Amino acid sequence: MRGEPLPPGISSLGLAVPPQLMVFDGVCVLCSGAVQFILRHEKAPEFSFAPVQSALGQRVLAALGQPDDGNDSVVVIDAGRYFLKSDATLRLARQLKAPWSCYAVIRFLPRRWRDWAYDRLARNRYSIFGRYDTCMVPDAELRRRFPS
């Protein structure tokens, strides 16, 4: 779970890319719920969040060569690298308080198996969990964690 190095041009996106960022599907009930869960259970408020529907989310996906229409993978940027699919969720789990950080134990499973399960859930997330009409709007206190 070493992730891929960020491309050199990502810092020249014309938008400030936080050093720790989660790009997620803002209309997905599961994805938005995951962001709320992270906000409640993180060790320290280090990560920023950007919906794929935001200007920052779109620019990050483009810079990383990821699809920008209904992206089926959460993207995590951390420590100068980016992580996709199950590696991204594992990277986020490292930031959670116990017992939630124990999820990271699945890193010992082969990535192929983890990503297979991730892909099945991602592909069916709207039919299982639902979809919002619009992205969540953070309150004034959290707005700094959601750069645009």
Whole-angstrom Rg: 14 Å
Largest beta-sheet details: 5 strands, mixed
Q: Mean pLDDT, nearest integer? A: 87
Order of helices and strands: EEHEHEEHH
Low-confidence parts: none
Describe the structure.
The chain has helices at 29-41, 55-63, 85-93, 111-129; strands at 4-5, 21-24, 48-51, 75-78, 81-84. It is α+β, with helices and mostly antiparallel strands and 148 residues long. A five-stranded mixed beta sheet has the order 1-5-4-2-3, with helices on both faces. It has a single domain, classed as Glutaredoxin, CATH 3.40.30.
Q: What is this entry, summarized?
A:
The protein has helices at 29-41, 55-63, 85-93, 111-129, and strands at 4-5, 21-24, 48-51, 75-78, 81-84. It is α+β, with helices and mostly antiparallel strands and 148 residues long. 26% of the residues are buried.
Topology of helices and strands:
Layout: E1 4-5, E2 21-24, H1 29-41, E3 48-51, H2 55-63, E4 75-78, E5 81-84, H3 85-93, H4 111-129
Parallel strand pairs: 2-3
Antiparallel strand pairs: 1-5, 2-4, 4-5
